[in-house]
Amino acid sequence: PVFISQSGAWRLAGINYAVGPLAVRQTIDGPTLTAALYDYGGLYLETGSPVSWQLVSATMANIPAVSYSTFLSPRSDWIEAVITVPEPATLLLLTAAFLATPLLHRRAQVPRCRRCLPRSFTQFTHSHDPRPSVAESKSMPALHRL
């Protein structure tokens, strides 16, 4: 982003859409890196045709790259038309839905085995032996058999 200081306040003035140089190498025979860099000192830059690589000496001063930006002010009418601020009722509804999601998820969880169900949901009762009978064991999924 590009900001300007206007009447003591910083305002968004533009958006970067390209930077250069994009292709650099750390060594002359090394792999080509595609990157947006603020300082390309100490790296090899692609130059000329046919392609050759030239070392840019590393100095204490930054060697800046090029940045291309587009100004937002000529497009402010369009930006205002497509960006709308939700009304308070919409924000309240979205907040309620966000907060209710974990509660609904907890209610929807199903017990993992028949023993976890309340007695009203199953005919299975424990006497002195907590293991299911042979008939019940055959009807249970393999994961729940003892």
Key phrases:
146 residues, 2 domains, four-stranded antiparallel beta sheet, 3 helices, three-stranded antiparallel beta sheet, alpha+beta
Characterization of the model:
The strands form two sheets. This protein has a four-stranded antiparallel β-sheet with strand order 4-3-5-6, with no helix packed on it. A three-stranded antiparallel β-sheet has the order 1-2-7, with no helix packed on it. 23% of the residues lie in helices and 25% in strands. The chain has helices at 76-82, 88-108, 134-139; strands at residues 2-6, 9-20, 23-25, 32-34, 44-47, 52-55, 66-71. It has three helices and seven strands, in the order E-E-E-E-E-E-E-H-H-H. The protein has 146 residues and is of the alpha+beta class. It folds into two domains: 2-82, no CATH class; 86-146, no CATH class. The two termini are 63 Å apart. Strand 5 and strand 6 (52-55) form a beta hairpin.
Low-confidence stretches: 124-128
Largest sheet: 4 strands, antiparallel
Query: Helix segment count?
Result: 3
Number of strands: 7
What's the domain count? Answer: 2
> What is the gyration radius calculated from CA atoms?
33 Å
Structural class: alpha+beta
Silhouette: elongated
Mean pLDDT: 75
Strand percent estimate: 25-35%
Q: Cα distance, first to last residue? A: 63 Å
Helix content: 10-25%
Strand and helix order = EEEEEEEHHH
Sheet with most strands: strand arrangement: 4-3-5-6
